[in-house]
Amino acid sequence: xxxxxxxxxxxxxxxxxxxxxxxxxxxxxxxxxxxxxxxxxxxxxxxxxxxxxxxxxxxxxxxxxxxxxxxxxxxxxxxxxxxxxxxxxxxxxxxxxxxxxxxxxxxxxxxxxxxxxxxxxxxxxxxxxxxxxxxxxxxxxxxxxxxxxxxxxxxxxxxxxxxxxxxxxxxxxxxxxxxxxxxxxxxxxxxxxxxxxxxxxxxxxxxxxxxxxxxxxxxxxxxxxxxxxxxxxxxxxxxxxxxxxxxxxxxxxxxxxxxxxxxxxxxxxxxxxxxxxxxxxxxxxxxxxxxxxxxxxxxxxxxxxxxxxxxxxxxxxxxxxxxxxxxxxxxxxxxxxxxxxxxxxxxxxxxxxxxxxxxxxxxxxxxxxxxxxxxxxxxxxx
Length: 382
What we know:
Layout: H1 10-30, E1 32-34, H2 35-42, H3 46-58, E2 62-65, E3 68-71, H4 74-78, E4 88-94, H5 101-115, E5 117-123, H6 128-141, E6 146-149, H7 155-167, E7 172-175, E8 189-193, H8 195-208, E9 214-218, H9 225-238, E10 248-250, H10 258-273, E11 277-281, H11 283-295, E12 305-309, E13 322-325, H12 328-345, E14 353-356, E15 359-361, H13 374-381
Parallel strand pairs: 4-5, 4-6, 6-7, 7-8, 8-14, 9-10, 9-11, 11-12, 12-13
Antiparallel strand pairs: 1-3, 2-3, 13-15
């Protein structure tokens, strides 16, 4: 890094250097940071973090994106030295820079370096209007040759966004998104995790551990949850567990009493139905649910087994939570591979749509037969 000006007090300049080193550590660990998140973590203002990001960007270490920064790859640092004819620029718009998506970005950047492509990342939100603004900004200012995007597809605004993406004059690859059948999106390619398959793996694991009533706790605000619910239902049918009477709750609809009251309601349903295991999306929700079970005197997995979904923070819980792990880096990697092939072959190449299977990572929260009678214990502790 550059030496701070002599006019800056030594203590202050040292703190600035240490702070930027911390930013680089976060970027190396996660691939991306948000200004808001890192400012809160370090206890400084967002303006201070923006200044640090600008300094790091001027030194060629990071790339500025909307709302944060990503780790700059050797490809980015040497792009100016390559003939323009040897490289394409790909825009990438993701809905988050601090959960799930940093690994997708990391996979995309690594593959882009292999393919001699340049990735330009913009952070967005789970909002179709903002998705379109970020894509339009790339189209207006960056002269991109292709687009990788994870759009919000809910409601009429989401469907209209998909129709617009389908008409763009450049190729578009969707990441972790599959357009609904009713939307004409014949030109859009995609790569997505088979989340239904992942949910089924979790249910079959819990069945093999001795659980015969397996519930599902999801958040309908997430684009992933509908696929998780579908996989859970299909697995119940395969295990001949009646769907009627099985616990399925939506955390997006929790009442004014908040999370604790919502979890108490879920545990009461588990007591009534004899449910001894839950599949919970996302794993941040799973961590909170396990903590709530422990606070209510339940043993995990003895009284309530839990499998989370996403495997972002599940390992941090006590006990550590088993979780379905989507192949996030491979989602980014394969998206770039699809884009590179499309740019090389043009319209003669058939539209490709690729599903990737996740893994199930087993930890303490789901391994071990349920205690008997679990329902009675639940009744005693609530």
